[in-house]
Design brief:
Number of helices: 4
Distance between the termini: 28 Å
Largest sheet: 4 strands, mixed
Helix content: 40-55%
Strand content: 25-35%
Order of helices and strands: EHHEHEEH
Radius of gyration: 13 Å
Strand order of the largest sheet: 2-1-4-3
Shape: globular
Number of domains: 1
Number of strands: 4
CATH topology: Bit1
Structural class: alpha+beta
């Protein structure tokens, strides 16, 4: 049986305040769900909506993992900040991968550390 989870990658180099980081992660989670297959979302919800937040060192590393997910046909959502608070307009802060099969996600992001 497939088990689903969602991964959110956060740029560690931005050193976002906790509240800003939480808001950006929330944006990524919601956007990815809105882009996802309804049957996958339903199964994921029924399983408890597992989410894991991982850190990447910078934009280049985040985009690398995002591309690997896209290549594996996993839904992604890149969040670009409006720049009204702590970062410049257009700063890409984080991205969500999935919800998707956790085995597939682990094969892509398994070596990354939790935030």
């Amino acid at each position: 049986m497939v088990e689903y989870k969602q991964i959110i990658l956060v740029r560690h180099d931005l050193d976002l305040p906790k509240g800003k980081l939480a808001a950006q992660v929330g944006h990524a989670c919601v956007e990815a769900v809105l882009r996802s297959d309804k049957a996958i979302v339903k199964s994921w919800r029924d399983e408890g909506m597992k989410k894991i937040v991982l850190k990447v060192k910078d934009l280049k590393e985040m985009k690398k993992y995002m591309q690997l997910a896209k290549d594996a046909d996993i839904v992604t959502a890149l969040i670009t900040d409006a720049g009204k608070t702590v970062v410049s307009p257009g700063t890409e802060t984080c991205c969500a991968l999935g919800p998707a099969d956790e085995v597939d996600l682990d094969s892509i992001t398994g070596e990354l550390k939790m935030l």
